[in-house]
């Protein structure tokens, strides 16, 4: 893990939380998502800006500069919320990897009342989240357990065993906005463990960057995207893993079968009634897969 993420709160986790909070106040139904908790845990001056149309436009212009990223985060939130809505009642355990300021353990607490929920993240970011919830007097559900971890260094098996994660049950695994910050080895270790520990019909949801599109971006040399990467690199959260080849082959290595994969054009059509988002969102895919055995 880079030095920054070991000692400072993840800048990308803060960014996605701010986008969800802003989206919560949107009037346009395409831009609206339902993370009311995000709006409670961002700094109060940003929350005040997000609330009103004019200041919200100023905030978006100043902070969400990368074309298409805001739309991508909104549609990713809505897509994954739909999965939680339809599945949460039927799983025994939920594991949220790189949870950041994810609030689904709270927002879906009724549907998840019979499940155990584990959130994994870097210690500093996780503690910042806990502090924000305590400060705003938002209570954590009893079935939520925090596990601090560095996926690139620590043993996931040891961490899960210690936290009481049960083997061979039906699980929902979520890696939202995480895979592209890890290296190939950490991805492989994480997915092997997911495969070994889960029962048939467990569900895996993650998004990833497509290697071929990233290469195309580099050739095109879009300056806004380059700037975005430079900012992330400075913050120690430089994108790493990209998926080469067919998604079906990748999933099969871990005994998962593809249920659904959506790219930016499909998300744009589904949630925004338009053909596609701006370039930055075009490299991302969201995958929903099911354990086969
Ligand atoms: C883009 S944020 C996504 C947060 C959240 N899932 C969301 O969608 O809002 C990436 C998250 O991955 C975590 N992360 C990145 N690299 C990590 C690592 N090596 N070990 C543990 N967590 C890591 C960061 O702390 C951060 O919370």
From TrEMBL:
<keyword id="KW-0489">Methyltransferase</keyword>
<comment type="similarity">
    <text>Belongs to the UPF0677 family.</text>
</comment>
<dbReference type="Pfam" id="PF04072">
    <property type="entry name" value="LCM"/>
</dbReference>
<keyword id="KW-0808">Transferase</keyword>
<protein>
    <recommendedName>
        <fullName>S-adenosyl-L-methionine-dependent methyltransferase</fullName>
        <ecNumber>2.1.1.-</ecNumber>
    </recommendedName>
</protein>
<dbReference type="InterPro" id="IPR011610">
    <property type="entry name" value="SAM_mthyl_Trfase_ML2640-like"/>
</dbReference>
<keyword id="KW-0949">S-adenosyl-L-methionine</keyword>
<dbReference type="InterPro" id="IPR007213">
    <property type="entry name" value="Ppm1/Ppm2/Tcmp"/>
</dbReference>
<comment type="function">
    <text>Exhibits S-adenosyl-L-methionine-dependent methyltransferase activity.</text>
</comment>
<dbReference type="InterPro" id="IPR029063">
    <property type="entry name" value="SAM-dependent_MTases_sf"/>
</dbReference>
């Amino acid at each position: 893990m880079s030095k920054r993420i070991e000692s400072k709160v993840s800048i990308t986790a803060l960014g996605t939380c701010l986008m969800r909070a802003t989206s919560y106040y949107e009037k346009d139904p395409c831009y609206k998502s339902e993370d009311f908790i995000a709006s409670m845990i961002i700094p109060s001056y940003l929350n005040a800006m997000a609330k009103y149309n004019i200041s919200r436009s100023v905030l978006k212009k100043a902070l969400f500069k990368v074309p298409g990223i805001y739309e991508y985060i909104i549609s990713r939130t809505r897509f994954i919320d739909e999965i939680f809505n339809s599945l949460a009642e039927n799983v025994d355990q939920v594991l949220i990897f790189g949870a950041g300021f994810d609030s689904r353990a709270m927002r879906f607490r009724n549907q998840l009342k019979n499940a155990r929920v584990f959130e994994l993240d870097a210690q500093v970011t996780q503690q910042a989240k806990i502090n924000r919830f305590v400060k705003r007097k938002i209570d954590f559900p009893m079935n939520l357990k925090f596990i601090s971890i560095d996926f690139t260094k620590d043993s996931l098996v040891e961490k899960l065993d210690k936290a009481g994660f049960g083997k061979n049950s039906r699980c929902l695994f979520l890696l939202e906005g995480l895979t592209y910050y890890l290296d190939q080895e950490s991805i492989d270790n994480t997915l092997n463990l997911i495969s070994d520990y889960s029962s048939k019909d467990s569900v895996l949801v993650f998004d990833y960057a497509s290697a071929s599109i990233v290469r195309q971006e580099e050739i095109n040399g879009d300056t806004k995207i380059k700037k975005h990467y430079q900012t992330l690199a400075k913050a120690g959260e430089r994108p790493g893993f990209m998926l080469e080849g067919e998604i079906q082959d990748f999933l099969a290595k871990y005994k998962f079968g593809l249920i659904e994969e959506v790219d930016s054009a499909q998300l744009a059509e589904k949630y925004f009634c338009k053909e596609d988002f701006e370039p930055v969102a075009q490299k991302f895919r969201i995958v929903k897969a099911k354990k086969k055995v």
